[in-house]
Amino acid sequence: MKIKKIYILILISVVLGINAKAQQGMQFYTMNRVFQSGFMNVAAESPYTGHVGGLIVPIFGQLPPSMYLNVTNSGFHWNNLYHHGTGSQADSLVLDLNNFMKNLKKAKVNNTFINTHLELLNIGWLGRGDIFWSFNLTEKINVGFSLPYDLFELGIHGNYDYMMEGKPLDFSKLDVNALIYTELGIGASIPVNDKLRIGVRAKLLWGNANVETNIKKLTLNTATIEDDYRMTFDADMNVRSSLPILSSLNFYGTDSVKAEMNDFNGEFLKNNILKFKNLGGAIDLGFQYQIIDEVKVFASATDLGFIHWNNNTQKLSSKGEFTFRGLEIKPIDFDSIKYKNQWEALAKEFGDSVLNIFQPELQNDEEYTTFLPSNIYAGVEYKIFDQLQVGLLYRGQFYRKQYLQAGTLYINAPVCKIVSIHASYTVANHSYNNIGFGLTLRLGPVLWYSSFDNVLGMILPQKARMINVRMGCNLVFGYNDKAKNNIPRFKTY
Amino acid sequence: MKKIIIVLFLFSCIVITFTTCIKDEFNLDKWNREVKYDASFAVPLAFGDLSYVDIDKFAGGIDNVIINDEGYLSLLYKTHVESFFADSLFKVGVMHNLFKIPALTKNTDVTQNWEIVPDELNGSTFLTGTKFKEMTLKSGNANIRIAKENGELLSISEFSSIHVIFPEIKINGNSALSFIFSNNIEDSQSLAGYTIDFSTSTPGYNKIPVVFHVNYSGTPPTGGVSIDVTFSNIEYSKIIGNFGQKKLMFKKDTIDVKIFKEEEYEINRYYFKDPKIKVDYENTFGVPSYFTFNELKAYTHQDIQLPLLTSTNPSLSIFHPDWHNVNYSTALGVPAKGNITINKENSNLPDIVSQKPRWIKFSATAATNNEQSDLASLNQFITDDSKLKADIEMELPLWGDMSLFKMKDTADFELPEYIFTYDPVKRAELVVKITNGFPAEMLTQVYFLDENNNILDELFVTQAEKVLSAAPVGAGDKVSGTSDKITYITVTNDKIRKWKTVKKIIYEVTANTTDVNHDQPGQLVKIYPENRVKFFIGLDFKVGIEGNIDSIQNAIENDTISNK
User: Fold this and answer.
1) Domain extents for chain B?
2) Considering only residues 336 to 395 of chain A, which have any Cβ-Cβ distance to chain B shorter than 8 Å?
């Protein structure tokens, strides 16, 4: 027992030491009475033999509606920018740019994510061979944008310090990514033996809209006086999108863009939605293994898949290097220069030059493929007694070019058949004050659930870098805490 | 129950208090409006790379600056003149003759020679004595009218036909011009494309043989006939022969030497070591030709005539009354080219140039043949578009010196609108880097003026800031290095305040060539295309905003209003 505790402490240390940035659903992962926790580990078994939920389920689907919302800002929270002062300023908010920049510098990149999943329909049932089948139809909206620290550095501190240090301002981590798609999944949680259970879910995806930037290089270097303060911009970037609502997009020279939108009508539906373009696929995998009666380990991978975008796609590319040396003047030609507007001339020349160099090239109807932000989870759970388990959960997410991590220490308390209480502590987003809370309450066939990864964030949003809420209502049938058809099952609590 | 009410009350108080606290955190009305912002920037403002192409303003345009044969620069001012076309100088116009045939003999040829003579009344402008050996016509009309010798009308019935043949007027080399009169007494034909060969007659020029032949039956008519032949509206494409001494007129013209446009600058003294006037000509006359300047006079910008340009060397026989032999074409379609150079070796041109000759006015004449020409030769030729054309250029090679060249100019100037009384710039330093590769030192100043032209400030304070040293000059009067300088100018708030009311700037430059002697030519310099002045102006500044944002906004708004 002592050794186990040491292992647990080591694991906690490892997890807390992670430069964590991930965002969602850590608390919810462990709430196995809720069918939707299987979205994160398809091998998870349910204590019920049947579930129905989702927005299209009359009455119960809206009490409350099954939904998931995550808002994360990795670089800073509100109080890093505005906070109450001290002394005579205690009642006032003060703008604290130094503190803001200090936090941003630590984060290097400020990632902002807004994710919401609208669960249209979820069905789960226990089938032959103790295989738990699941079906889901979900609309997923994931929006993220990243602003590199150097962008704020330029605006708030200027370019002088970087110039003296001889390093360029690097905006390469600038990123925008919006992904909206519909997911149809069919999964199965399959008992292999009395210790091991595996799961797999196949998902068919319809892409609704996508915008993503791909910035390989975007830097601004200011040379020292020896090289005449030359400002060199270096860019290699593109923006890809599939926006069925966009009818046409055209560039006219360097200063005019014309975009036309489709009318959202029957014709639009016929030409876009019903043609089932932008198809993709993904799978979720998972397992859980009961080492001993008190300890189980589990791991899963979700959203291993892609969407191939081929409906009304656009690609905007720009590549080039531009050195700005100031306004070229010829002193002898004094009367040919409109000095009254010299500043405007300087700005115009600068703007024109940059636009000419980075003249974006627009390509329409070029198909492309995006990969989903995939997740891996791994954890271990220790049963102290039937009504109390503790566990550790690690999560990694492959988001664009970044690998985002989070670690959670959790407690599950399946108090009785009606109520289960869950709590967690998560390290994520350079944030160490994420206390999670979850609750399930079953009255008859109606199971309400809610989960918050950051309860303090709900209470003190000014100090929160993330708000993560999942709630809903399912109809559940057949509480099943015993083996069925003599097939060994995991103990559920 | 009482406990429950108390608990609920306390809970409600906590919730309300808590909610109020959260609201306060996001209530920007509670912001104390204080801002503190410090940022430092370094930006390039302007740069320049001044080379010979940028002296075009003084030269009068970049076309006036060339790289000469020796590789350094020259200023070049030129004009183009040309004589009139040959077909306006040597007109033939009309050829006419009345032939008399006293008696007609049946079926017998009667040949007569028709001599061509000038007919000034009908537009002929070729000289008496001009010898035509061959003439090719591009247009013209031949008209023949037949009458009885005594002038009475000739009755057609009296004979069958009469033929008038010009055996040496041929088209395509073999078909002779001929007329046949049978039922008519007058006829016309086009002469376009015919060539008249005068050489078969005696003495071999100016005469055309004409053959008359009569066919008739019965008794011939009594008395002779007269045959009136007129070639009118003659335009030739080529004439071979000898054209005598004929003057080819040129229009008067002027060379504008824009460098001496004095409004742009002042100068104490200058010296061009090797000025030149070149006449490049092209002659398509196949005739010995001669050229002379009737007059070649220089005038200052104030229109004061300078001494006449004269020859100091007998080899330069180009000023009236001397004539200069020019090359002439020896084969059709192959123009002859040549040039005449007036320079310090053969003229007083350097003296003229040293007196700022703004205008060079001239008139010229060319002539064909002179007393020495072989007037018996019949191998001279002209075509209708023969011309003597000439480019007359004044070249001022940039090899010399210059003392106290002063130039100043005025330009509008206003600081950007966003620099107001509220001054967020806490530190600003202009950096001016200059690399001078010109063999000239410069003393520069920029004056800042208000709308009433009062000087409010000067950009450079110390003499060291104003002076830019000349590039050193080595062997062959060529620049051997550069002169480099970096000047840091601290732009204080006091200066910015002054500049806010500035409406104009005056830019003033005084320049001397390297090691110039202000009294007489000494160290000379040559300016090469690679000589240039590179400069860069950068700004390093710190913006500091600290205080109440509302007060700052008010200050800016007040400034905006007052500025408007």
Assistant:
1) 39-55+403-563, 73-85+245-397, 91-242
2) 337-340, 342-343, 346
Q: Is the pLDDT of residue A262 over 80?
A: no
Topology of domain B91-242 in CATH is Jelly Rolls (2.60.120)
- Among B215-229, B480-494, B546-560, the range of highest mean pLDDT: B480-494
* Domain coverage including residue A290: 2-479
What gap in Å lies between CA A385 and CA A382, rounded to an integer? 9
Is residue B94 a contact partner of residue B231, using CB atoms and an 8 Å limit? yes
**Is A93's CB within 8 Å of B537's CB?**
no
* Percentage of the residues of chain A whose pLDDT score is greater than 90: 43
| B32, B415, B538 ranked by CB distance to A228: nearest | B538
Using CB atoms, pick whichever of A157, A225, A231 lies closest to residue B39.
A157
End-to-end Cα distance, chain B: 73
Tokens 């345009």, residue located: B61
Cα distance from A167 to chain B (closest Cα, Å)? 14
Distance CA A149, CA B556 (A): 30
Distance to chain A for B411, nearest Cα, Å: 6
The residue-averaged pLDDT of B446-455 equals 90
Are B25 and A340 inside 8 Å of each other by CB? Answer: no
Of 1.10.150, 2.60.120, 1.10.287, 2.40.128, the CATH number of B39-55+403-563 is 2.60.120
Euclidean distance between CA atoms B273 and B511, whole angstroms: 19
Q: Above pLDDT 90, what percent of chain B? A: 34
One fold for both B39-55+403-563 and B73-85+245-397?
Answer: yes
Size of interface A-B (CB pairs under 8 A): 138
B510 has pLDDT over 80 = yes
Q: Which fold would CATH assign to domain B73-85+245-397?
A: Jelly Rolls (2.60.120)
- Which tens digit of pLDDT belongs to each residue from A472-488? 999 998 876 543 433 33
Chain B residues with CB-CB distance to A86 below 8 A: none
Tokens encoding A247: 């009818």
**Using a CB-CB distance cutoff of 8 angstroms, which residues of chain B are in contact with residue A150?**
none
What is the ipTM, given to two decimal places? 0.73
pLDDT attached to residue B62? 58
Mean pLDDT of A135-163: 93
Residue A330 above 60 pLDDT? no
Query: Across the interface, do A93 and B44 touch by the CB < 8 Å criterion?
Result: no
Q: Do the beta carbons of residue A470 and residue B32 sit within 8 Å?
A: no
Looking at the structure of chain A, the number of domains it has is 1
B36, B546 contact by CB (below 8 A): yes
Partners of residue A372 on adjacent β-strands: none
Torsion angle in degrees (nearest 10) through CA of A322, A327, A331, A335: 130
pTM above threshold 0.80: no
Task: Identify the pLDDT of residue B58.
Answer: 56
